[in-house]
Amino acid sequence: MTSHARRALLAPLAVTIALPAALYYVLRAQGTAPWQALLISGVIPAAHAVVTAVRRRHVAFFDLLVVALLAVSAATSLVSGDPRVLLLKDAAIPAVLGLWIAGTLFLSRPFAFHFGTHLRRGSGDAEAERAWQELPAYRQALRGLTLLWGGVELLDAALSTVQALVLPVDAVPVLGRIQSFTLLALVVVITVRRSRRFRARHGISLFGTAGPAGVPVPQEAGPGA
């Protein structure tokens, strides 16, 4: 994986997973109530989403989801005073993402294809589009990865829901982050291995960059859906 790809993956993770958890425990160590610490730490990914939308002049689905869920859960928690409402917000995010990712299988291009735009450079987008049109194995591989990613997000959501309802409140943020990182690492390993096997077999990367020798996309079939 290139340094550009690593930055594209790790920077959002630090903002949405690592920093909020660290801030939560700092606030708890200072005597802040659990629901207040959860609410304040949840502002980090929400603020990042707003800044990103302003900078790009475009509101992405994930950014809108983070802000909306924080607002709803914060309002509910203020009324009820129950920190578990805010913990369930962290379970709702992967639930909605998982359903959305899986739903892209019914669109003209699945999530895995569009995700590649964050990793590709140069003529990568053109290579990816040509591979999608001309190589059935390419379409099948990206649809398979989309199904995998959506399923893992739904698994994360199910486990997070159980944690939010059953475990002590202060244990959930760190356990939830460890769980999310572990599942993500598993998905990354599987994705990298599948991508390498695909490149060895077909001469191109699953994410649209040309092979080491500039191998052209094989002409196996007509245009895809």
Q: Could you tell me the strand content as a percent range? A: under 5%
Distance between the termini: 29 Å
Task: Look at the helices and sheets and give the structural class.
Answer: mainly alpha
Helical residue percent band: over 70%
Rg over CA atoms? 20 Å
Rounded mean pLDDT is: 79
Instruction: Note the overall shape.
Output: elongated
- Strands, total number: 0
Order of helices and strands: HHHHHHHHH
Unreliable residue runs: 209-225
Largest sheet: none
Q: Output the number of helix runs.
A: 9
Write a structural description.
The protein has 225 residues and is mostly helical. Helix content is 75%, strand content 0%. The chain has helices at 3-29, 34-41, 43-56, 61-80, 83-103, 111-115, 124-134, 136-166, 172-202. Helix 4 (61-80) packs antiparallel against helix 5, helix 5 (83-103) runs antiparallel to helix 8 (136-166) and helix 8 (136-166) runs antiparallel to helix 9. It is elongated. Residues 209-225 have low confidence and may be disordered.
List keywords for this structure.
0% strand; disordered C terminus; single chain; 225 residues; elongated; 9 helices; mainly alpha
Write the layout of secondary structure elements.
Elements: H1 3-29, H2 34-41, H3 43-56, H4 61-80, H5 83-103, H6 111-115, H7 124-134, H8 136-166, H9 172-202
In short:
75% of the residues lie in helices and 0% in strands.
